[in-house]
Amino acid sequence: MDTPTRPPPPPGSSAAVASPNTPTPRPERRPTPPAFSSPLSARLSPQIPQQDRLPLSSSRTPGSLSSGEGVHHTGSPVPQFSTPPGPPIFSSPLRPAAVPFQASPATPQPVAFSWGSSLPTSSSPPYSNGSSEPPHHSADVDESTLESPYVLKRKKLANVPSLGFGALVSPGREIAPGPEVVHHEPHRCQTCGAYSNLYCEILVGSGQWQCVICKNLNSSDGEYIAPSKEDIRHWPELSSSAIDYVQNGNRPGFVPVSDTRITAPILLVIDECLDEAHLQHLQGSLHAFVDSLPLTMRLGIITYGRSVSVYDFSEGSVALADVLPGDKSPSQESLKSLLYGTGVYLSPVHASLPVVHMIFSSLRPYKLNLPEASRDRCLGTAVEVALAIIRGPSADRTHGIIKRSGGNCRILVCSGGPNTYGPGSVPHSFSHPNYAYMEKTAMKWMDHLGQEALRHNTTVDILCAGTCPVRIPILQPLAKSSGGVLILHDDFGEAFGVNLQRASSRAAGSHGLFEIRCSDDILVTQVIGPGEEAAVDSHETYKRDSSFCIQMHSVEETQSFALSMETKGDIKNDYVYFQFAVRYMNIYHTDISRVITVRLPTVDSVSMYLRSIQENAAAVLIAKRTLLHAKTFSDAIDLRLTVDERVKDIAVKYGSQLPKSKLYRFPQELSTLPESLFHLRRGPLLGNIVGHEDERSVLRNLFLNASFDLSFRMLAPRCLMHREGGTFEELPAYDLAMQSNVAVVLDHGTEIFIWLVSHLQHLCYAK
């Protein structure tokens, strides 16, 4: 390799210098020259890792719940990888908008559980993971502002296609105050599997409790015996709608961890085919990233181009790279010689920091005169090798599952172009006669690789940057199936570095199972979110268990599931019940079962029902079900028309007809919904204001799995105008806000736009 061009550290710095005496290299190994630690290391400060309490999600319903029933909470302010930094916190108060429009609240309203309406379902499978399902819509309400959430009793009205019934649930939402925590086994219905809750009828003399889902009478083994019904409320699960059941003492070898997280290794997979400008930015971000890691974190480095280089830290003062061909998957023989040899491919940061900096500084720009999209990149092979290193030579396999100490391992891919060489690759040119078939084959291969990573407790996050299209349809299945994310950046600079750091510290539970149970009157028809329908043998079954179970790829605060529901017939009861439970293992290897139970009253009045709908969540759920079909830009154009037809249908079904006219007035109870749907139609999700289809595809995939907060901001941006004296005034997100004498800030969820006088500055925040 060439000698590094990295400048020496400033006087007084503590940079370590590698020894210039390089040992004799082994066959097929590339020695790396010495280098100094980067002066950019202080530029990107590490994000503070969020505490691993992933409490139950907050919620919104079409009405408010009483104090005993409330489940709407404020989310944690600690940033997560999937959530961008919010708007700046201003010391001066917000002033109300001096315009005849209704502005959104000054503070974004956190939500994780929402109710609403949806488009009709078909006979297709009830669970979708960003694939194909008919669009649905749900309406949702802030529990703290409305008198009561309602469910329509009459089936014909409740199941109207354009405004049906649904919910938005974030099982891992951080809430304050947190849910009640109990350390005993939960009491579950022996008939349907539902959990005991505050709405159960308790026979205080015998301790028996009646399930609210199936009405079966169950024994509590005498635990719920009490002198009076008031004394029963001393049990947390019988007095709170949100409960965390924590089980941590039933596994052999369990060691409780209080303050320090169990850290799992991180493997960096780095693209070697970058031009000089991009490479310089990437090197700065990588230097800062490794300086931000905990000293005990184990780190590995792999680079890929036409071949795969696996860096070995066994020599101490110098790095060597084992080289594998990239045109095919690594053979068992090559992996065996790699894993059973003397090489050290995962090393603690404190033992290898100088060598890691040396490796980053030794990276060189691509030298052949080829366009970025035509360069050979064997990304698929590189991820296969990374996964093999994480598994190691002596992994303890039990039923195909790898068990080890620590949380989810992470593979962080830094890519500047498409996978065009080796397994899972596509041709350089779209005009290739076999491109469509090869693309489909590559997508299946990447999906299988992602599932294999998930099976070994490994998450693959793909961070792309630059101007070269990376073929999102090929890479997205790898990230999604492993529980990771794929995001795009303009370059490998500061925003990329921040996201790299967040990826390494993101709190994520594993082995998640999300269970949905409803009253017999309610049918779950569709689920959209980060997971897949659970296999029957992956969870307990009961005699009359009608629950819908989702196997979650990971359990994180920023996720949500969009549910579509229907009423099976006219509802005769005064209440319907919903119970949502997520069982997972947190990063401390503690088993947690989080249970939320909601009771909604039923009503005959359509007007009362419409007033109880929270329109912001209704818009988010409409958008999620619509975008489920937006696979290509042409699909997005067609879906704009379905949004128009939906608005018309809502007006016809729930509005009033104008006198002597065939026109209908849109229902005043949903007066702000059309504006949000206008933003959906014209914004980046369905519109064409974002330049490339790769960018639109990434935004749509983020949106389908995102929490309410991020989803609504991506759908309907928040506009703030800066006034003299440091105050900000909230304005509607219309063109008229862009005046020549004011500064305007537009928060679009994943990005912040700033209008300064006559020019626009675009600040890209971490996604």
TrEMBL record:
SUPFAM superfamilies registered for this protein in UniProt: beta-sandwich domain of Sec23/24, Helical domain of Sec23/24, vWA-like, Zn-finger domain of Sec23/24
GO CC, one annotated term: COPII vesicle coat
Record-annotated Sec23/Sec24 helical domain positions: 616-710
Biased composition (Low complexity): 53-68, 114-133
Biased composition range(s): Pro residues: 1-12
Region (Disordered): 1-145
InterPro entries: Beta-sandwich_Sec23_24, Sec23, Sec23/24_helical_dom, Sec23/24_helical_dom_sf, Sec23/24_trunk_dom, vWFA_dom_sf, Znf_Sec23_Sec24, Znf_Sec23_Sec24_sf
Topological category with respect to the lipid bilayer: Peripheral membrane protein
Domain Zinc finger Sec23/Sec24-type positions: 186-224
Signal peptide: none
GO MF annotations, alphabetized: GTPase activator activity; zinc ion binding
Key words of the record: Cytoplasm, Cytoplasmic vesicle, Endoplasmic reticulum, ER-Golgi transport, Membrane, Metal-binding, Protein transport, Transport, Zinc
Keyword Membrane among record annotations: yes
Transmembrane segments: none
Limits of the Sec23/Sec24 beta-sandwich domain: 510-603
Pfam family of the protein (one): Sec23_trunk
Intracellular or extracellular location(s): Cytoplasmic vesicle, COPII-coated vesicle membrane; Endoplasmic reticulum membrane
Gene Ontology process terms (BP): COPII-coated vesicle cargo loading; intracellular protein transport
Domain Sec23/Sec24 trunk: 268-493
Function: Component of the coat protein complex II (COPII) which promotes the formation of transport vesicles from the endoplasmic reticulum (ER). The coat has two main functions, the physical deformation of the endoplasmic reticulum membrane into vesicles and the selection of cargo molecules.
PANTHER family: PROTEIN TRANSPORT PROTEIN SEC23 (PTHR11141), PROTEIN TRANSPORT PROTEIN SEC23 A (PTHR11141:SF6)
Protein name: Protein transport protein SEC23
Source species: Ensete ventricosum
